[in-house]
Amino acid sequence: MGTVLVIYASDYGHTKRAAAEVALGVERVVGTNVRLRSAAEVTREDVLDADGLILGSPVHMGSIHWELKRFIDETLSALWNQDLMVGRVGGVFATGGGYGGAGGGCELAMLSMLATLAELGMVIVPLPKCTESYAHGGLHWGPYARCGSDELSHTPPPAESLPLLMAHGQNVARVVSQLSPQTAGRIARPSFTSPQT
Amino acid sequence: MGTVLVIYASDYGHTKRAAAEVALGVERVVGTNVRLRSAAEVTREDVLDADGLILGSPVHMGSIHWELKRFIDETLSALWNQDLMVGRVGGVFATGGGYGGAGGGCELAMLSMLATLAELGMVIVPLPKCTESYAHGGLHWGPYARCGSDELSHTPPPAESLPLLMAHGQNVARVVSQLSPQTAGRIARPSFTSPQT
Amino acid sequence: MGTVLVIYASDYGHTKRAAAEVALGVERVVGTNVRLRSAAEVTREDVLDADGLILGSPVHMGSIHWELKRFIDETLSALWNQDLMVGRVGGVFATGGGYGGAGGGCELAMLSMLATLAELGMVIVPLPKCTESYAHGGLHWGPYARCGSDELSHTPPPAESLPLLMAHGQNVARVVSQLSPQTAGRIARPSFTSPQT
Amino acid sequence: MGTVLVIYASDYGHTKRAAAEVALGVERVVGTNVRLRSAAEVTREDVLDADGLILGSPVHMGSIHWELKRFIDETLSALWNQDLMVGRVGGVFATGGGYGGAGGGCELAMLSMLATLAELGMVIVPLPKCTESYAHGGLHWGPYARCGSDELSHTPPPAESLPLLMAHGQNVARVVSQLSPQTAGRIARPSFTSPQT
Fold first, then answer.
1. Interface predicted TM-score of the whole assembly (ipTM), two decimals
2. Count of domains in chain C?
3. How far is it, in rounded angstroms, from Cα C29 to Cα D194?
């Protein structure tokens, strides 16, 4: 019925691992297909085929990975320009060392990705506090898998954060399946913005 | 089928005027009811009755009006604590003098309101670029009615921004009506976050 | 030589406790005076007397306490309007339960306070990663004292975060003392913005 | 006495033009040198030589140009890691089509650059409202030169915004010259963060 595309950038494979968990959550929603692509390999066609879009990035200097930004600038901006994604569904997640224990800049990093989704006119799915494992990386904008225990370390997403990542993928997929089911969540520009029919 | 509650704070009546226009847009979606309340008068019951929630504020010092913040702190935070709004639908708008011509801080002000909606676990409706009158106050997070022409002036929302405000109310109402139509957009906590049934 | 004013809002006394620690740090810089005021008691004169300003708040629904916002709207906005604080020095801190372990919204909350300082035209002092105890609540925008261990708990700032709060007060005071020492950091509007003399 | 480095990314030469104007402002402060570099050509040594750093970018999809982000990720993050820029001075500016008239996302774009400066531990210079030409692109975080009049156009920075860009460069340079004059604004890590000497 619907397809959700998960796009990630990854330095050490940890964000890729987190993205795979998000994708597993998408698949738990009956009738939903998932595609998992790195920012380096994803194509314009992958995006246009998707009813839902989930962006994930490590936190670099308080914002997202430059490879994901390049994909946004070079590919997604053209879809923005033509209003081709309006009314579809999106969500975000992030990973990071999290040195400081105060989020390490993950909030602005997620907002940078959410700004892209909003520019595209996409409906945004947040992360409810009641989500399973919220205590292990939950932020209202999306899940944050803490891949590190001090300033410099790089470790895989902790096991206790995996259910949270999965639940987020599931939530996004569920909204995809519920939003205009007859069109698999793809609300055409006219029906979204024109005067009431 | 669904009810959308528009909550605003207003100093000179200009944000109230903008809120009324957003409410008119909600009403254009067949089967949707609208309620318009100031931050000083709205009650917990008003919020619990609503399938959709739209928050609007003038921009004060780069963020929202303190009266709206008090309502958020005193009333909405309790609903957040009990996860009572999860899966419902929300949107935001702002007004402001806009001195400088660079948004005047409306983006962080809108994000402050959107953070509240995300904390509540609500699905967020942005403002697509293709929306009518986008050139007159369009920002991807929501409409911004510029109520002023220089540093100190206070004027009503410009006529050319009214269709944009109306369209935003309409978009939010449309997503309310499409998201789980059988439950009027009110997705119960279990169906939103639990493992797939 | 210079005076730093620390303004806080507090629900349970924990942010007041954090503010007191920040104030202790200010006092460690020779020749600097400190004043500690709640948002409910601080006056316009307190602000005008200060060469440096530090704002602190608990995180409520992803932004600041409404009492601090009221003070900003009612008192600081008038100083903004008259450009009376331009060139002085500022910083921020926050406290919060931090449920989720991903900052709990402290970044946007700090940015909401920093937007106020920027609107006032004040030079902003961040929190360098090399600061003592950065691992215990360090964020680049300022220190975050985590007052809680789960969704609902409220506890005092942890002991290991106190040196971080103190160091931040000290850093702000140090910049106050170094910025235009002859005027104790108070750069008048003309010297800040006019063509080079 | 001090050196200010202006780094920009540019698609059509308009942000390069804006950066040149910022650089002119730096030069108006007696005793200050300026260097102007694109994100593609700037080196680690350029950054280490600078007492002040100004970052500028076009707004792309609500955040900064990927080429500037790549420079941040690949070069500045290493300086962050070693705490080599702590206590120096920074500022930001942006350009953009500004379709919508509400800032077009320039605020989060500027905050993305400011997050980098804050991560580096740099003192941040905002844009005071009383600055000359503030009405033509003034935002409290920095100047925004609107390079476009509708959704798709690309035009040079408007003439009336040039004094604003220049004033911002001048303000940053002035703080560089005032902050620890004997060290040209370069506050070594120990003196910035250690207990009072």
1. 0.93
2. 1
3. 11
